[in-house]
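Q: Fold this one first, please.
A: Sequence and structure below.
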Amino acid sequence: MGVLQWFVDLGASVMLPIIIFIFALVLGAKPGKAFRSGITVGIGFIGLNLVIDLLTNSLGPASQSMVENFGFQLNTIDVGWPAAAAISYGTALGSLTIPIGIVVNIILLTFGLTRTLNVDIWNYWHCAFTGSLVYALTGEFALGLFTITVHLLFIFFLGDIIARHVEKFYGYKNITFPHGGSAPSFLVALPFNWLFDRIPGFNKLKANPASIQKRMGIFGDSTVMGVIIGIVIGILAGYHVSEVMQLSIQTGAVMLLMPKMVALLMEGLSPVSEAAGDFVKKRFSGRGLYIGMDSALSVGHPAVLSASLIIVPITLFLAVFLPGNTVLPFGDLATIPFLICLMVPVFRGNIVRTVIAGSFYIAIGLYIASWAAPLITDAAIAANFDMGSNSSISALVDGAVWTTFIFVWLPKVISWFGIGLFGLLILFGLVYVNKIKPKKEVEM
């Protein structure tokens, strides 16, 4: 267990290259190519984290200033996903999530119940998060493990159903995002898109980055839009002119640099994707295989970043004006792109649709994060997490994700039966997507 915890503590930027290297060798890639692939992915993640840190370090103080400028008063602090991940993996229960996830993935692949080969095992922390909350709520270790297992089944199900959308919109062949913080929003976007398509006039509005740039010229360019949005946020924060200018250039830099870091990640993943395709053709004729990756690969898209930067100030105002909300968004404001990145393919890159649906999604999420705050605080205490001067903590990722409510509320209300029934429904979904549906398509 100590070795496993040590491996987890290395973080995604070190874990992932090792995992990519091993999987590439298993899939038949040459050692040199596999090694270079792993190293490139690791460097890509470091570059991506540097850009996210830039966004965090620029948006964080701006958001704090906005809070002070408007006199916002909320008693639960959003500590951000790094803290949530540390809390999740900081207990004996959470540290078991990775081996359970690997076993579940192997079993599902063996029986043809998933097409997702997930190499992004560090992000199993999302499942450890819900399991830890269930344990904090019920005190039942076994029920926490069962919740983790069912949650794992759910992210493999999501990985299977979103893969074709990922390829169609982002252009990533044989890659999917079974990411516990991002994938659930895909299911929320579907009914919203159905509704938007039936609103006269609105259903004709084209608002993807290309159409916006065509209409607005240079002001529609994603980098320039980042600069403009930075100016607006700086003004709302009450910044001086020099500070507004600095923030605007920083947000513009994020818009320009993020896609380049994602491109570097994809460069590293390409050999693995090719090896996976050859591996499947040789051993599983007629069956596709998706490489499960971090949704960080999608957050560099101009539509994702533009919508996210617009949603940041909206999130702060929602937090204040929604009656009953106790959470002050802070640590995860810079990771809003991860919450909405799988809405964007459903809306075909439409920024207006993404902002409307994303704002509604986060509004509901703030209530979930408020509801989960006592449990997250208890889990943090159990994991010996340093909360500083804060007596109540929460997080937007994953505290505000609807799956957190489902996976914690079900064991609370109907214990084993509730989470077991949900697990059976997910299992049927996996059977339908990977067994029944493909058979129907062949018959047709």
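Q: Good. Now the second chain.
A: Here it is, same layout.
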Amino acid sequence: MDIQNPAVDLVLQSALLWSGMIKKADLQLSVHGISFSEFCILHRLFQAPQHRLSRIELASAVGLSASGVTRLLQPLEKMLLVEKEQNARDARVSLVKLSDSGQQIYQDAHQTFGFFANQFMSPLTSRQQDTLAELLARL
């Protein structure tokens, strides 16, 4: 029986590409003592107003569950890269804030990740990168 489905092949190829990219990004970011997932957390916090978000907002921003974000935050808290902060309006909601040392590590790691991203995307022209960005946004 011949079962061919280009969509299945494309999704599997994308998953393999993504997995390889994560491994390479982890290797590059390891010089800063963080993983790609941790970099994503720091990136979203750095972009947030006053460098703080609720755990739920952070989970949504990085595509993880609230418990997944909590597990990622524990080592970042131990490394003093993020801090817990109470919400002044609602004591039941805790915020995650990027610490001063977290901001410094993020900025250093961002430079490293920028070099990695440029190298990773180098087989594509600028126009191809724009097209890929459009296609990914549509998915």
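Q: Anything worth noting on the second one?
A: The beta strands are 52-54, 82-86, 94-98.
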